[in-house]
Amino acid sequence: MEDCGHGRFQWTLFVVTGLALMADGVECFVVGFVLPSAEKDMCLSNANKGMLGLIVYVGMMVGAFVWGGLADAVGRRKCLIMALAINCVFAFLSSFAQGYGFFLFFRLFSGIGIGGSVPIVYSYFSEFLSMEKRGEHLCWLCMFWMVGGLYASFTAWGIIPHYGWGFSMGTEFQFHSWRVFVLVCALPAIAALVGLTFMPESPRFLLENAKHDEAWMILKKVHDTNWRAKGEPERVFTVSQIKTPKQQDEFIEIQSSTGTAFQRWLVRSLTLSKQVIKNIISLASPELRLSSLFMAIIWFTMAFSYYGLSVWFPDMIKYLQYEEYEAKVKLFHREKVEHFTFNFSLENQIHKEGEYINDKFTGIEMKSVKFEDSLFEDCYFEDIKSTETFFENCTIKSTVFYNTDLSEDKFIDCKLENTSFLQPKKGCHLDYQEENDILIYLVSFLGSLAVLPGNIISALYMDKIGRVKMIGGSMLISAGCTFFLFLSFSQAAIIAWQCLFCGVSAAAWNGIEVITVELYPSSKRTTAFGMLNALCKLAAILGSSIFASFVGITKVVPILLSFAALVGGGLLALKLPDTREKLLL
């Protein structure tokens, strides 16, 4: 690789693999951005929303495990192409899915596809880098995950609030603007897929699989591409022989090329499965056992804190918004209204012990309206759109509800006498102006942008400071930053502390990904990365679920949990071996 130099080929591969990493970053944001609209479009319950938020991480966890194992057996490039193709196909299908079940299923498989991106991309790109360039350029590659977050935030803000950017075919098929956003989010994966078709397989993987001549030809191509671009086309590739580390089992080789098509497929599948399982078991071998245990704990603690707080920050902002909204509620007590037509919208109101006789409610919207212990007699409701509107302990006599979305579950402990519901509205009411607050996109955009300083610092100093000190220092400083969250009394303060935390923790993430590549041999590299990344997604699921459950209850538990995890992981990281001078074997 030193003889090949660093030039045009590596920069081209940098962009292609970066787009694949960007697609992974986008995938983490898609569901969060579309949920406010999708929950109305598909009439999702809170349980359904929670499942939709978690299913992407479940898919990515499975994908990281599967594709990581396969990439060591089948090839980096081949597996990355298959993984991105699956992601693109199911992301496309999910944008057209009308029912919750199909949308959930397609997003699961979209996540399984993109789950292979991170484990394969870092291993694939690192195997084309010389030792002195490895740490710095892998850190630059990490910036594409940040770009994915920026891309998702910017396109969501530009597309989702525009309700007119869609079409419908009757009442059964609706294609609203949030579905356009889902399609646009697949573009980085499509671009990476196209770019990979022009890239070669990793020569290190080919050598591991006894394909000496192919590896030599690829290295020569890299050499010629780089030196031709530097104006030295006459420079000769001096490497004439490369040692092949292992030979394929001849018996397996003969079996996999003879017999019927099914027999050949069966032999290859069994051989592949055995190889993947053998690689997974080998991560617990005496020479790798301690490193694997340390890395598992570090990945888990970092992901648990990072993803847990990533959910906690926006949820806390929403909670503060809700408290502010609740503080402005208007209370009407014992009002008596007769022969009146309500043709204006009602919002954030509580009506207690009121009497409404022979009144009309026509063509209006009701948002966060509650009627308690009230009487409705000879009233007429027509063309009503409601959000968070309830009737509790009311008596409703001789009243007609025509073309409204006020279903019977909105009437809690009410007494209904001679009351009819005619031609109720189907589906759920979408209010794009209200449901798509620009603050949602701004928080994600700033959180992604805040990673930039951490990425730059880690890229410039990764080889000078070392991976171990970078990870340990970043995690310990991040742990200190969590105590500032006790001062988060306003939305602006929460956004500021989020940006600080994301910026500081970025260096730890970069160091973790670089050292994971360097700790393991080529025959087990993507398997180990896939296992650790799957553990990362499991920690993300646990962290986001646990932290979200304390929103509005207490700040102490999330802060102490994240602090303890980061301190533990940071101190353990300082015990890792320094891999700056390690050759990728």
Describe what is shown at a glance.
This is Major facilitator superfamily (MFS) profile domain-containing protein. The chain is 62% helix and 11% strand.
Describe it.
The structure is a single chain. This protein is of the alpha/beta class and 585 residues long. It contains 20 helices and 17 strands. The strands form 3 sheets. Strands 3, 5, 6, 8, 9, 11, 12, 14, 15 and 17 form a 10-stranded parallel sheet that branches. The model is unreliable at 247-254 and 430-436 (pLDDT under 50).
Low-confidence stretches: 247-254, 430-436
The count of β-strands is 17
Global shape: elongated
Number of helical stretches of at least 4 residues: 20
* Mean pLDDT across residues: 86
Instruction: Profile the largest sheet.
Output: 10 strands, parallel
Terminal Cα span: 12 Å
User: Hey, roughly how much beta strand do the residues contain?
Assistant: 5-15%
In helices, the fraction of residues equals: 55-70%
What gyration radius follows from the Cα positions, in whole Å?
29 Å
| Coarse structural class | alpha/beta
Main location: membrane
Protein name: Major facilitator superfamily (MFS) profile domain-containing protein
Transmembrane segments: 12-35, 47-67, 79-97, 103-125, 137-160, 180-199, 293-313, 438-461, 468-489, 495-517, 529-550, 556-574
Membrane topology: Multi-pass membrane protein
Tags for this entry?
MFS_trans_sf, 5-stranded parallel β-sheet, 585 residues, transport, membrane, transmembrane, 11% strand, 20 helices, cytoplasmic vesicle, single chain
